[in-house]
Specification:
With 78 residues, the chain is mainly alpha-helical. It has 3 helices and no strands. α1 runs antiparallel to α3.
């Protein structure tokens, strides 16, 4: 059972990294240094960005749940 949650944690970690990297830079950070600030924003986020935000939050919650379940299982295992 621990092995299944460990694999799920690895998958969710990779997905979370991919999703975070897919987000558009908001400016004022490292994205400006590498040319991300040259794009003009069109006031508000598009439907695709909002869906990406929602998917990222869901994957983040699942990632956190996997960590909590793994911690509990390892504590009970002793």
């Amino acid at each position: 059972m621990v092995m299944g949650f460990s694999i799920a944690l690895i998958v969710f970690s990779l997905l979370l990294m991919l999703l975070v990297l897919m987000h558009k830079g908001k400016g004022g950070g490292l994205s400006d240094m590498f040319g991300g600030g040259m794009q003009s924003s069109v006031g508000g986020s598009s439907v695709a960005e909002r869906n990406l935000d929602r998917i990222t939050v869901v994957i983040g919650v699942l990632w956190l749940a996997c960590i909590i379940v793994l911690a509990l299982l390892m504590k009970l295992d002793g």
